[in-house]
Amino acid sequence: MARVARIALALAGALALGCAIGEPAHAKKPVETTRKPAAKRRAHHDASAAAHITSPHDAADTPAVRYGKLSQDDCEAELANRNIEFTREDADGVVAPVRLSGALHGVVFRTDAKEKDRATSPYEIADCRLVLALDDFAAILESHDIVEVRHYSMYRPPHGWPEGKIGAQHNGALAIDAGRFTDSSGTVLDVDHDFHGALGAKTCGDGAGPRPSTPAGLTLRAILCEAVAAHLFNVVLTPNYNRPHHNHFHLEVTAGVSWFLVH
To answer: Could you give the number of structural domains in the chain?
Structure first.
C-alpha cells in the first residue's frame, strides 16, 4: 500500500500542476485572490490525495483496470464488438488514439469547438481505452436522460515530447474534463454552478452530497458516484479536490495500476 500511495501522490501532484496550467484556451480559469506558497499547496494536495486512495481486493476485475491493460488491437476490437463508430488517429504519446464518429448510448461527447473544427480538433482525440470507459459511463448517463456531455479536452498534445514516449492523463488522451451535462429537455447541469461541493469535502458515500441539495446537484452527484461505484475510472477529481477543478470532473483511466483516487 505504501508504494501505491507514493505513486498516487506523484500523480496527484502532476494533476494539480497539469490542470492548473494545461487547460485549453476555451476552459474557464478560477479567480484566486490569495495563494498559499507552492510548497504548502503541494503538501496540501498530497495529504488530500492520500486520504482518498483505495486499492480494492477485486481491482483486477474492475473496468478501469481491465481496460488499462488492453493493447491497441484488442481495444479497437472491443470498440467494434460494441458497434462504436470511430476512426484511428495519429497522436504523439497516445497508445491507441481514436476519434469518435457518433454517440455512445445516445450520448454525444464534444468540446465547445465549432462543428466545422471538431473533426480536426486534437482535444477530441481519445485513447481507445478511455472510450471503453466512456461507453460504460454513457450507459449511466442514459439512465439519467443525459444526451450530451461538453468537455474541455481529452487529449492535450504534449510539447517537446521525446519520440516514442508514452503519455498519461491528458498527454496520453486517457482523461476527460467533463464540464456540462445536457438532458433531452435541454436542461444543462453545469459542474461549475450545480455541483455545490467544498474544497476538501467528501465526494461520494455516507455523508457526502451537494450543499445545498438542489435537484441539479443531486443528479450530478448521482451520475458521478454511480461511475465511481462501478470503478470505470482510476482517477476521479471534482471541485472538492482543488480550485482548478471548479468547473469540471476529471475522469481518467490510468494504465497499469490497481488503485483508485476519488476526490
So the answer is: 1
Q: Which domain holds residue 19?
A: 2-262
Give the torsion sign (CA, 28, 248, 31, 51).
negative
Rounded distance between C-alpha atoms, residue 122 and residue 154, angstroms: 8
Tens-digit pLDDT profile for residues 4-46:
444 454 455 445 444 543 455 444 433 333 444 555 555 455 5
Whole-number Å distance between alpha carbons of 246 and 107? 23
Strands (E) across the chain are located at: 53-54, 86-88, 97-100, 108-110, 125-127, 146-151, 175-183, 188-190, 235-237, 249-252, 260-262
> Which amino acid belongs to residue 258?
S
Query: Residue ranges of the alpha helices (H) in 99-194?
Result: 115-118, 128-143, 191-194
CA distance linking residue 224 with residue 218, whole number of Å: 10
The per-residue pLDDT for range 214-242, each reduced to its tens digit, is 999 999 999 999 999 999 999 999 999 99
**What three-state secondary structure class fits 209?**
coil
Would you list the DSSP string of 90-106? Answer: --TT-SSEEEE-S-BTT
Task: List the one residue out of 111, 62, 101 whose CA is nearest residue 79.
Answer: 101
